[in-house]
Amino acid sequence: MRHSRRTSATTSAAMIALSGSLLLTGCGSSKIGGNSGAAPDATQSVNAEGTDAALVAMVPADLKAKGTVTIATDSTYAPSEFKDAGGNIVGMDIELGNAIMKKLGLKANWQSADFSSILVGITAKKYDLSFSSFTDTKDREKQVDMVQYYNAGEAIATLTGNPDKLTGNAADLCGIKVSVQTGTTEADEIKNTVNPACKKAGKPEVPNNGDQFNAQTDATSALIAKRDQAMMADSPVIDYAVKQSNGQLIKIGQDYNTAPYGIALPKGDGRLAQAVQGAIKDIIADGTYTQILTKWGVESGALTADKVLINAAAG
Length: 315
Fold this sequence. Notes:
The protein is an alpha/beta fold. It folds into 2 domains: 53-152 and 258-307, D-Maltodextrin-Binding Protein, domain 2; 154-257, Periplasmic binding protein-like II (D-Maltodextrin-Binding Protein, domain 2). It has helices at residues 53-56, 61-66, 92-103, 115-123, 138-141, 185-200, 216-224, 235-244, 270-285, 288-295; strands at residues 68-73, 76-77, 81-83, 89-90, 107-112, 129-130, 144-159, 178-181, 211-213, 230-234, 249-266. The chain is globular, with a radius of gyration of 19 Å.
């Protein structure tokens, strides 16, 4: 099964009610375990060098005339895109997007959006494009063009000390209470792969197909509060949550199901996709790309310039 932050552009988000008096972090905030949600290496400088005239010439006339592009993002998914303590949308994707748009002579207007509405919003011309941790898949390429820019996998976290002696293998989560964000591949993996395997082996299933939350921050908080025993999410999200947890969480096992994230663009506008592809290669060449990934502690997923591909999903 291929990794994907969300499995369907039309998946609706359903919040599972929280019981008892446990107070969890609210949607849109990155604050977990008392941390404010800053970049892991906030002192890392970022060049964000100037425009590329050849790429500017490739930008469609309507976008060039506007000068500002509307970029949709689901701002609950630290460290890729989330809101800081002041309510500003920040993260790896935001800084990459700003640097890429600068190469194209454009400014970015970031808008928070429900993940399941973003691709439809692009086809309806509500948004010009999206950075929102979309894994590039063949199904998504039927709706939009995808320019690959980063590799991410799936991973598992648990409480420090690993009290349940988990292995980091999703197949070994039978009977374990697992927090997960609604609509993700991780949620579908529990329902469609893990629990059927548990049932076949005569073992207890993951309760309720996982403890599901609209916001990833709430899923993380549920684990920290010991409401759940493990958490499944994209690898950069797990890595960031561990760093932000003040020593309360650890990552177990290795990343798996690694695949590229893609920037979502209107379908069939090849010059825009090529311009964005060129801008990514530019920021790789001038060092901005590495600086941004390092700032957010996610440099392990960096692509080389030859891997920045358009509509190249494997499945």
